[in-house]
Design a protein that fits this description.
The structure holds two protein chains of two kinds.
Chain A (H helix, E strand, L loop, with lengths): L7 E7 L2 E8 L5 E4 L15 H4 L4 E5 L18 H14 L5 E6 L2 H11 L4 E7 L31 H6 L1 H12 L6 H11 L4 H9 L5 H10 L4 E6 L7 H11 L2 E5 L6 H4 L1 H14 L7
Parallel strand pairs in A: 3-4, 3-5, 5-6, 6-7, 7-8
Antiparallel strand pairs in A: 1-2, 2-4
Helix pairs in contact in A: 2-3, 3-8, 5-6
Chain B lengths: L23 E7 L2 E8 L5 E4 L15 H4 L4 E6 L17 H14 L5 E6 L2 H11 L4 E7 L32 H6 L1 H12 L6 H11 L4 H12 L3 H9 L5 E6 L7 H10 L3 E5 L6 H4 L1 H14 L6
Parallel strand pairs in B: 3-4, 3-5, 5-6, 6-7, 7-8
Antiparallel strand pairs in B: 1-2, 2-4
Classes of the chains: A alpha/beta, B alpha/beta.
């Protein structure tokens, strides 16, 4: 059961891959809540949507591979450029000329692409726990993802063969790392449940999609002109807080560090995060009501 | 009787920030024992959130106060034994008569002519007594998970003696005064896990254990011995004297007090029974929205009465 049901919903078709979107509220401006890694779907915004939709128009959608969207098993739909173009297609399909883009974790990559390549559509950008490399070497995995695993400890479980063998165990490990705050059992259970709505095969296909290198990401930051807010948990075990600080500096944005928060503060500090998003959206030129 | 300060070994917890702070607060004293009250809001009528067993203090209403105070005038107080109240050491200081007399003294001290009473667990004993003895002061009664002997207890709770030393610490054997003195925290963690059987209750459990650590096991033993002095027959007589509307809210997974006890109380007071599916013994903490809406609806149905 949801606190608020969507006012309308539909699909966009990207080369035969259907993506499910929802629209709620009718305030100004529109907030586009981007998907994040395929391991969860748009319900990860559940603590934001009812509040923000009372003040703004909210558009959310499921990226390829989870939720109400198709689950392609080739890498194509999962590459960063196609993910970003899919976001632009959702804006078009919902009749949205311009929006405040809100992203979590690796959604930051697609938000940056939009800021650099479709600047007229982006009023402002809120990054939560951004996972985007502005320095070399970030994201290199040891041991490697594509070789049979020899250990099942910790991050050794981030491995295609381990996923195929012990998918739920990986989900429980990963979301335990995402939610380092006390009393996160509900959020972990929610996230594991959403992870189980897709499959290790989908996540393996997603892993093969290209990610931007650090030079590309720095280029996007240099090209972006819109106001930026970066919210980063001070105890983020997935994307270290220094990455959020670097992104704020590279985009000339404001950085808010939530002390003691983990990687998904929108779920564990929703009141704080919601107010920061609202305050940011209302501060934008032409962003207020009316 | 004389007031006794907190025995050494207890510590006041660093209080968390609150969603809403009281508009007025104070102490009332009876026979040398002080209890601490708070008032929130100024709507009509007054909703009086009563103490329960001294193991927790009035912060256990923390999910009710901010909501109810937007609609009503809300009173609450720390019952004797915990919070900012004194901690008498004798069993006789913890009977239902003493709690009911404290509640009446709080009504008087705050200039409250009438109120709807809301109680949790063994708070049912003093709210019933107060309504039976002072029908002119009580508009209605809401009972959450009432701990009343109108139906048998859970069988596993009837096995072990509270008073006698036991040769086991397993399960409900921990509900034993000797165990409390030996491993107070061990008892608290067991007890509140049984109170809060719903998934995702870690925060509510942590809160309750911390409130209980603000009192000493010696005080908790005295309060338990006081409750053991309460007699079923006199409680049944009080129920028959209740004339105001009543609402009983009871979880069907309550592992402390069987749902049948709440059902029997609703029947004995000719009130309404609301069963919360899947809920444990502390639904005000784990189903606060549902409980708050039920309390509000009930209080509004009583018809406005000036204080």
């Amino acid at each position: 059961m949801r606190a608020r049901e969507p006012d309308s919903e539909g699909f966009v078709d990207r080369d035969g891959v259907k993506l499910h979107f929802e629209v709620l509220g009718d305030g100004e401006p529109t907030l586009l809540l981007l998907p994040t890694w395929t391991i969860i779907h748009a319900r990860f915004w559940k603590a934001q949507v009812p509040y923000l939709a009372r003040h703004f128009r909210v558009v959310t959608y499921d990226g390829p591979g989870n939720g109400g969207s198709d689950r392609p098993l080739d890498a194509g739909p999962y590459g960063f450029e196609e993910q970003a173009r899919a976001a632009a297609a959702v804006l078009d399909a919902t009749g949205t000329d311009r929006a405040v883009v809100v992203s979590l974790s690796m959604g930051a990559q697609w938000a940056l692409w939009l800021m650099a390549n479709q600047p007229e559509q982006v009023l402002g950008s809120v990054f939560i726990g951004p996972a985007v490399a502005l320095e070399p070497g970030v994201g290199d995995l040891d041991p490697p993802f594509d070789e049979p695993y020899t250990s099942t400890d910790g991050w050794a479980r981030y491995n295609r063969y381990y996923w195929l063998d012990h998918y739920q165990d990986f989900l429980e490990f990963f979301f335990g790392q995402c939610f380092t705050e006390a009393h996160s059992t509900k959020q972990i259970e929610d996230s594991v449940g959403w992870g189980l709505e897709t499959s290790p095969e989908v996540l393996i296909a997603e892993h093969a999609g290209p990610e931007p290198d650090d030079a590309t990401a720095r280029g996007w930051c240099a090209a972006s002109r819109c106001p930026v807010l970066v919210i980063h948990g001070g105890d983020d075990h997935i994307a270290a807080p220094r990455h959020g600080r670097a992104l704020a500096e590279a985009t000339g944005g404001r950085l808010v560090v939530l002390e003691g928060a983990g990687h998904i503060p929108n779920a564990r500090d929703p009141v704080r995060v919601n107010r920061l998003i609202r305050e940011f959206a209302e501060s934008l030129p032409g962003g207020g009501p009316g | 009787m004389t007031a006794v300060r907190a025995p050494s070994g207890t510590r006041p917890a660093a209080e968390q920030t609150r969603a809403r702070y009281p508009d007025a607060e104070g102490y009332v004293e009876r026979d040398g024992v002080r209890v601490f009250w708070e008032r929130y809001g100024d709507g009509e009528p007054t909703v009086f959130l009563l103490p329960t067993w001294s193991i927790v203090h009035s912060r256990f209403w923390k999910c009710q106060i901010p909501y109810l105070a937007r609609h009503f005038r809300v009173l609450t107080f720390d019952g004797r034994g915990n919070g900012r109240a004194d901690r008498p050491t004798t069993a006789e200081a913890y009977t239902e008569r003493e709690f009911a007399a404290d509640a009446l003294a709080v009504l008087d001290a705050t200039g409250t002519r009438r109120a709807a009473l809301v109680s949790l667990s063994c708070g049912a004993l003093w709210s019933t007594l107060l309504a039976a003895d002072h029908p002119d002061r009580v508009d209605g009664l809401v009972y959450l998970g009432p701990a009343v002997g109108l139906a048998p207890p859970h069988p596993e709770r009837a096995v072990h003696s509270f008073l006698e030393p036991l040769d086991t610490d397993e399960g409900w054997a921990r509900y034993n005064q000797h165990y409390w003195l030996r491993d107070y925290r061990g008892f608290l963690e067991f007890f509140f896990a049984r109170c809060l059987t719903e998934p995702h209750s870690t925060k509510a459990q942590e809160d309750c254990v911390a409130w209980a650590l603000e009192m000493a096991p010696e005080t908790l033993i005295a309060s338990e011995l006081g409750l053991l002095l309460c007699e079923l027959e006199s409680f049944q007589r009080q129920c028959r004297r209740i004339r105001c509307p009543t609402l009983v809210i009871h979880g069907d997974e309550d592992a402390i007090r069987p749902h049948a006890q709440g059902a029997a109380l609703a029947a004995a007071t000719r009130g309404r029974l609301v069963t919360l599916a899947g809920a444990g013994h502390l639904p005000q903490a784990r189903d606060p929205v549902k409980v708050n809406l039920l309390i509000r609806e009930f209080v509004e149905s009583l018809g406005g009465t000036g204080r």
